[in-house]
Amino acid sequence: MPSSWSPSLRFELQFTGENINLWGEKLNTALSRADYAIAGWLTKPLTGHAALSALSALNDGVDEARAAMIKFTGTLTEPATVSIPAVSKMYLVWNATDRVVTITAGGTSVAIDPGDIVWVACDGANVRTPGYGGLSIKDYVAAAGFSAVELPAQAANAGKYLKTDGTNATWQAPSAADLADYQTAIKGLQVALAVAL
């Protein structure tokens, strides 16, 4: 019976009695691929009109989809969609392009804004990112976190900061008194840094 391949990371699974005297080479190949799947970076350029791209997924060879972390680079003329294999796998994805990059495996997808670094997980069909209440962490903070907190009288207090005494919060204009200990604090940090060096 011939070797088979693991479904998510495409490692070669040896059949009993197969590949006599080749186990060392086969094991080293599998360990190299495991290293890439756990801690490997893939830099994937997306340029111009990259409306749909796919990560390569090869059983017997180097493949892009096995990487643990992916950095998309390039200048795009429109948002891009990148297809990943429809298998269970988690990625750390950095969108270093100038447009939104959407990750899909056929079901739900995750849109990653330019400059964002996010975790994405595929359950074999759907791609999701960690979050709360059905929202990504970024969307949760933007929608639920800050919109629920209304600061008092913002319009009349441009250029001021919000100061609290532990019970009440008030708008204050910056003053020299607020910075009175600045020089002492900076000097203390400089001394600490000099001692550390």
Molecular structure report:
There is one protein chain. The chain is of the alpha/beta class and 197 residues long. The chain folds into 2 domains: 40-145, no CATH class; 155-196, no CATH class. The protein is built from 3 helices and 15 strands. The chain has helices at residues 23-39, 137-145, 182-196, and strands spanning 4-5, 12-13, 41-45, 52-54, 69-73, 80-83, 88-95, 101-104, 109-112, 117-123, 127-128, 131-132, 135-136, 161-164, 169-172. It has a 5-stranded mixed beta sheet with strand order 3-5-7-10-11. A 4-stranded mixed beta sheet has the order 4-6-8-9, with no helix packed on it. It has a two-stranded antiparallel ribbon with strand order 1-2. The chain is elongated, with a radius of gyration of 26 Å. The N and C termini lie far apart (63 Å). The mean pLDDT is 80.
Shape: elongated
Radius of gyration: 26 Å
Give the ordered list of helices and strands: EEHEEEEEEEEEEEHEEH
Helical content class: 10-25%
Provide the low-confidence segments as ranges.
none
User: How many E-type strands?
Assistant: 15
Main beta sheet strand tally, sense and closure: 5 strands, mixed
What fraction strand? 25-35%
Q: What structural category characterises the helix and strand content?
A: alpha/beta
Strand order of the largest sheet: 3-5-7-10-11
Structure annotation, total helices = 3
Termini distance?
Answer: 63 Å
Average the pLDDT over all residues and give the rounded result: 80
Number of domains: 2
